[in-house]
Design brief:
By secondary structure, the chain is mostly helical. Strands 1-2 form a two-stranded antiparallel ribbon. Helix 1 packs across helix 2 and helix 3 crosses helix 4. The protein is globular and about 60 Å long. The two termini are 25 Å apart.
């Protein structure tokens, strides 16, 4: 049976007919699914709490994260990257601008276009929150070898790409 997140949460373990032992891969996949679901829930709650502290919605907060990572973007580019409808992006940018987190600036080479850029001075309060969390993640990473961390990176990149595609399909 699928859980609310669409992941099969039935006992998917297989047993060897002769020995009655659980298949090691099935057990690991079951535990990975459970850990992934828990991580997803905790991540949403963390980012919701961070957003609320700043008077933002989770969508507004993640849009600021996107702008911080990718730099200034047009409203069309924001719509493409967030899979939000253009009208929703306009409202989103209006809210962020009204709260002082972004500003609209003229495109440097095409004066007909407008870029949405972060007002970095407004993000200073967020830095302390994320520094505390980053310190804990850095401590966790010390428990893993470089090769193990490379495997984690490869898994997260693959999972992210698949989730991005699933999100795009939902927006169709």
């Amino acid at each position: 049976m699928s859980g609310i997140d669409g992941i099969d949460d039935t006992d998917s373990s297989s047993e060897d007919a002769k020995t009655g032992r659980r298949d090691g891969r099935a057990d690991v996949l079951e535990r990975l699914t459970a850990a992934g679901r828990e991580n997803s829930a905790v991540t949403v709650m963390f980012h919701s709490a961070v957003a609320a502290r700043q008077g933002l919605s989770a969508t507004e907060n993640k849009t600021l994260d996107l702008l911080e990572r990718d730099g200034p973007l047009t409203a069309k580019e924001l719509a493409e990257r967030t899979t939000l409808a253009p009208a929703s992006v306009t409202g989103l940018v209006d809210r962020l601008e009204g709260k002082g987190f972004v500003r609209r600036v003229k495109h440097p080479t095409d004066k007909r276009r407008v870029l949405i850029e972060i007002r970095r001075e407004k993000l200073a309060d967020l830095a302390a929150i994320f520094e505390d969390w980053k310190r804990e993640v850095d401590e966790l990473c010390e428990e893993f070898t470089v090769d193990e961390l490379e495997t984690v990176i490869r898994f997260l990149q693959g999972a992210t790409e698949r989730q991005r595609r699933a999100t795009a399909r939902l927006a169709e």
